[in-house]
Amino acid sequence: MKLTNFTLAALALTFFLSCSNSEKTGEKSSDSNENAIKIDTGITENDNASKLDLADIEFLKNAAIIEMADVEIGNKIIQLGATNDILAFANKLVTDQTASGNALKNLAKKKGFSLPNTLPDSRIQSIKRLETFKEDGKNEFFIDTIIKDHQTTIDLFAAAAKSKDADIAAFAELTKPALLNHYEEANKIKKKILESKAGQGEDPLKKSDQKNFKR
Questions:
Q1: pLDDT, tens digit, 9 for 90 and up, residues 66-101
Q2: What is the set of domains in the chain, with CATH numbers?
Q3: Fewer beta carbons within 10 angstroms: which end of the chain, N or C?
Q4: Which of the residues in the chain have pLDDT under 50?
């Protein structure tokens, strides 16, 4: 599989973080079980985490959920089948977000956090909705979900790029271009969908929502 520039950059960041951790080998550390506590964000914190503020902690949690959700919905549309442009986009999304997610795990480990490894139920149910649509509705729902999520995600990563923590700022800054690229590509596909269905009658998304509402 041909790797995107972002994937290669994310792998480089993963290697950098791994090296940074290995340099600390041999240093005396405290017992993580004794120092570990649970915090509201749902992330496990140890004594290294005291160096991060709440905004950094929230970013690590939300970024993990975003990347898992993108991989899941990308794989779901690939499994269900879609138009060629959407399948190509979904494969790129999965590749980029898998690489980014791996880099994030290394970053979180360095900072003393164990990231969430399951999606919130609301995300799971949203992804499952793909199964309720026919071809046109399925394609449009997938693209609409990516566009909506990325509008929030881009703002989240832009804020994290200004973090006082140099590693978090670097990770966010590295990831932003790929997110912007995903957003732009999704909007182009959305435009094609709107053009192709012009004058074809009822919106398949609205039709599905009405059906669900009647239940």
A1: 999 999 999 999 999 988 999 999 999 999 999 999
A2: 54-197 (1.20.1260.10)
A3: C
A4: 1-2, 11, 15-16, 18-47, 210-215
Spatial distance between the Cα atoms of 154 and 164, rounded to a whole number of angstroms: 19
Nearest to 69 by CA among 148, 140, 3, 4: 148
Q: Considering the entire predicted model, what is its pTM?
A: 0.69
User: What are 9's two structure tokens?
Assistant: 């950059």
Q: Report pLDDT digits (tens) over 196-215.
A: 877 665 555 555 554 443 43
Q: Judge whether 113 and 43 are in contact, CB under 8 Å.
A: yes
Structure tokens at 53: 């503020």
- Integer angstrom CA distances of residue 13 from 47, 59, 167: 24, 18, 10
CB-based contacts of 21, cutoff 8 Å, min separation 6 = 106, 109, 110
Q: What region, left, alpha or beta, does residue 143 occupy, with left being phi > 0 and alpha being psi -120 to 50 degrees?
A: alpha
The two tokens of residue 207 are 């039709």
Q: How far apart are the C-alpha atoms of 28 and 122, rounded to whole Å? A: 42
Q: What is the 8-class DSSP label of residue 162?
A: T
Alpha-carbon gap, residue 134 to 28, rounded angstroms: 58
